[in-house]
Amino acid sequence: MPAYRIAIIPGDGVGNEVAEEALKILMAVAEKYTLDLDTEHFPWGCDYFLSRGIMMPNDALDILRAFDAIFLGCIGDGMKVPDHVSLTMLLAIRKGFDQYVNLRPIKLYPSVKTPVITATPQSIDMVVVRENTEGEYSAMGGFFKSGSRDGFATQTAVFTQKGCERVVRYAFDLARKRRKYDDEPQVGMVTNCTKSNALNYSMVFWDNVYDQIARDYPDIRTDKALVDALTMWLVKNPGYFDVIVASNLFGDIITDLGAMLQGGMGFAAGANINPDKIYPSMFEPIHGSAPKYTGKAVVNPIASIESIRLMLEHLGETQAGQDIENAITEVLQSGEIQTKDMGGQSKTHEVGDAIRTAILKA
Ligand code: IPM
Ligand code: MN
User: Fold this and answer.
1) pLDDT tens digit string along 285-311?
2) What is the pLDDT of residues 248-278, one digit of tens each?
3) What are the φ and ψ backbone dihedral angles of 158, each rounded to 5 degrees?
4) For residue 343, how far is its CA from the centre of ligand 1 (angstroms)?
5) 106: β partners
6) CB-based contact 353:23 (threshold 8 Å)
7) Which domains does the chain have, with CATH numbers?
8) Residues within 5 Å of ion ligand 2 by Cβ?
9) Closest ligand 1 atom, CA of 132?
């Protein structure tokens, strides 16, 4: 009986509600596959900050290290703590545990409406591999001559050979595994999301690394798109894409667009992965904490449930992950469950209940 220790950090706003549904689904598959689960909740976030002056304990990473995986609800509540302060917590875990891949699958479930007319369940089948530890998020820079008209700020992006190599390699390996074009000699494609026409050092460097790594994958198509044009193509012809590899900031931006292709933020999941499994990986919906909806049970927990699916796949529980995907498909296709973002009135817990039932009866 495999045993897993899972840390749960519900966080702020609607974090508690979505974490509860995520856990419900985790428990359902544990029951079905007799997985031995040990979960522990950590009340870290903005309220913790208000009483203690820190978002999480100073030894938080030491505590989390003992776990096999982390589920994170959502962090941030601008009325309590400025966002650039509260979000250091998220970035500290991503960097501290060297979770250098932020994996964001973009898939449209059947029966889900999206505002993008080119998006159909057939056309939306791609994964964004976002660099997650460096680049534009390197937190290097400063404020200078503050308060005067000569005042200025700098923010330096750092792109290292190792940092670029490992994320690009991950993207090519993923394309090889996905085999989107199974019947063609080149079984997949990795689109390099860049901006090397304007960012003449960092992105030229990034492109060079991409080209170096691509040589090791003759079975995978190469492709390059400037990030601005990519946003246009993602709307115009989303079915073209397979795997997209992007820097930290570009990956952040294009995955919000990706969320709309999926039907909204309520469907978009993310995995912060340390592929070497030296540290625990962290799984989270990519939406924010939506404080105004707190306690109303109106938010869509599917993004969080999808994150649990990614967690199980990472832990090697492939069948359990597949069961979650099938159950979500079944529940959405039945049309019975429609949360507020889908134009309906289903409650957050009703979504989890329906998916749980579908998992257990399959
Ligand atoms: C995300 C979020 C975070 C990011 C914020 C909250 C720091 O937008 O996970 O996409 O920019 O990475
Ligand atoms: Mn984002």
Assistant:
1) 999 999 999 999 999 999 999 999 999
2) 999 999 999 999 999 999 999 999 999 999 9
3) -120, 120
4) 26
5) 126
6) no
7) 1-99+271-362 (3.40.718.10), 115-261 (3.40.718.10)
8) 252
9) 12
The encoded tokens of residue 274 equal 């340390």
For residues 163 and 133, what is the distance between their CA atoms, to the nearest angstrom? 8
Three-class secondary structure of residue 76 per DSSP: coil
Measured from the Cα of 284, ligand 1's closest atom is: 9
Nearest CA to ligand 1 atom 10: 252
Please give the Cα distance from 159 to 293 (Å, whole number).
Answer: 38
Closest CA to 157 of 124, 112, 203, 113: 203
Ligand 2 centre and the CA of 2: distance in Å? Answer: 33
CA distances in angstroms from 145 to 64, 149, 152, 153, 155, listed in the order given: 40, 8, 7, 9, 15
d(CA 305, CA 355): 9
Upper half-sphere CA count for residue 323 (Cβ side, 13 Å) = 23
**21, 115, 225, 203 alpha-carbon torsion, rounded to 10°:** -50
Closest ligand 1 atom to Cα of 255: 10
Residue tagged 């134009």 (tokens)? 343
Answer yes or no: is the C-beta of 131 below 6 A from any ligand 1 atom.
no
pTM for the whole thing? 0.97
Q: Among the residues of the chain, which ranges form H helices?
A: 15-32, 46-52, 60-64, 83-86, 88-96, 161-178, 202-214, 227-236, 248-261, 302-314, 318-334, 348-361
